[in-house]
Structures are given as C-alpha cells and as structure tokens.
C-alpha cells in the first residue's frame, strides 16, 4: 500500500508516493538492517511505482537545513547503493523531468512541494531539528531563487509523521518551539510537554507566503498506525524507514 496526496495527485504528470511497512526498510542509514535487504526493498518500491532506479536521487540525511538542487548529472545517485548517497542534505529540489527525488523517514515528516506554473518539485525531511533550523523556509527560498516561483503558486503536502498525540518533548525543546512559534504549536497535557510538528511546518510555510488553501496535512501518525507505518519512537531498533518520492514525468 502506498499513500498519495489528494491535492498533488490531481496533476497527471506528477508522481508522489509514501511507502508503508509492507515494503520494509528503505534507508541505507539504518544501523542494523543489511544493505542488500534495503536494496531489494527499494527495487520493489520503485517497481510498484513504475520508476526506473536510474532516475531516482536519494541523499544522506543530517537533520539540518541543507537542500540539494538536482540536475540530470545527479540521476541515480543514492538510488540503490549507500556509497552513492550525496551527503549531507535534508531536502531536494529540481525542475527537470523524469528525475524522482527521494528521502526516508521514520517519524520525521516528508514535505512534498510542487509549483505547477514553473513545473518544479521539492521534497524535505522535516524533523524537529530541521524545522527549527528552517528547512521549510529554505525550500521556499530556493523555489523563488532557482525556479522563479511565486510562493502563492506552490502547493504542499505534509505527509505522515509523529503527530501531536505522541511528540512528547523535554522542557528545553518545548521552550525552543514556544519561542519560535509563540506557543501556537506547543501544549501541556497532564503535566507532559508536547509539540505539534505538522502545525509548525504549516506556520512556517504560511509565513513564507504559501496560501493556507495550498497546504494539505496528513493526519496519519507513524506511532499510532502500527499496522501500516513504522515509528522510531515506538519501534526503537526494530524500526524500518519509510520512503517518500516525488517527480515530474513527460
């Protein structure tokens, strides 16, 4: 099973997907799972999407805010081999056709971007560190600088991740989000501290000029959906990372 965005799936030349547990681990950065198994899982995932592995570009994640502009010479990098991963980035963007951008997540949010006017796509790995570092603000800035996008034209899908019901944090992190988002995404429940990461992403995007109506949020929680999704916080060392993909095709 693969999840799609209602908003972005309306565009016939845009491919977008987020894998489920049935595909197994898709991250070459997993400390325990054999790389041959991951390669096999990825091959199955690409095949289900009818995407050639040579057209996929994947990156080595760093939980920060660096974004890679992807040209045709990057095609195939990191697709089926850990040694080919481009380090260290947490986002990709391209205006080239038939290039598929890929990240992996296990609680962090995949954020899919598409400007239909400039035919440009982007994909961000947004965990709490990346959000505070401004990964989503940086993505919008690159859309403007490299593709000439107007933020009002960009459509965004915030995929499944660790939702507010399970993102409990320590006071230091709670306070940082409180200062950065004026307490609009942090709350206290039964003396425990929580942050709504999906909401912080939306706030950042709106502040960068993206229309609220152009932002779709998945309500699926990686922790809650035990049958469908893996969660690092829930599964610990037994987690398996999901894969997110976006790309335009002829």
Automatic annotation (TrEMBL):
Keywords: Hydrolase, Metal-binding, Transferase, Zinc
Span of the signal peptide: none
Catalytic reaction annotation: inosine + phosphate = alpha-D-ribose 1-phosphate + hypoxanthine; adenosine + phosphate = alpha-D-ribose 1-phosphate + adenine; S-methyl-5'-thioadenosine + phosphate = 5-(methylsulfanyl)-alpha-D-ribose 1-phosphate + adenine; adenosine + H2O + H(+) = inosine + NH4(+)
Keyword S-adenosyl-L-methionine in annotation: no
SUPFAM superfamilies in alphabetical order: CNF1/YfiH-like putative cysteine hydrolases (SSF64438)
Protein name: Purine nucleoside phosphorylase
Molecular-function GO term, any one: copper ion binding
Hydrolase listed as a keyword: yes
A Pfam family annotated for this UniProt entry: Cu-oxidase_4
Family: Belongs to the purine nucleoside phosphorylase YfiH/LACC1 family.
């Amino acid at each position: 099973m693969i999840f799609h965005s209602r908003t972005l799936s309306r565009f016939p030349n845009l491919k977008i997907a987020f894998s489920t547990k049935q595909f197994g681990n898709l991250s070459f950065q997993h400390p325990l799972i054999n790389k041959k198994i991951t390669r096999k899982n990825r091959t199955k995932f690409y095949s289900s999407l009818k995407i050639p592995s040579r057209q996929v570009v994947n990156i080595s994640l760093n939980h920060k805010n660096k974004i890679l502009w992807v040209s045709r010479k990057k095609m195939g990098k990191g697709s089926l081999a850990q040694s080919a991963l481009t380090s260290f980035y947490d986002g990709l963007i391209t205006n080239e056709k038939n290039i598929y951008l890929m990240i992996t997540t296990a609680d962090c949010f995949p954020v899919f971007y598409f400007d239909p006017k400039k035919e440009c796509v982007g994909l961000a790995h947004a965990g709490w560190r990346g959000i505070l570092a401004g990964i989503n603000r940086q993505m919008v800035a690159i859309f403007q600088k490299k593709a000439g996008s107007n933020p009002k034209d960009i459509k965004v899908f915030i995929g499944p991740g660790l939702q507010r019901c399970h993102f409990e944090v320590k006071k230091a992190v709670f306070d940082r989000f409180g200062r950065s988002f004026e307490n609009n995404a942090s709350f206290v429940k039964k003396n425990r501290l929580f942050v709504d990461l999906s909401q912080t992403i939306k706030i950042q995007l709106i502040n960068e000029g993206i229309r609220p109506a152009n932002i779709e949020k998945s309500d699926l929680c990686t922790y809650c959906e035990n049958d469908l999704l893996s969660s690092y916080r829930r599964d610990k060392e037994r987690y398996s990372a999901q894969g997110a993909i976006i790309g335009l095709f002829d």
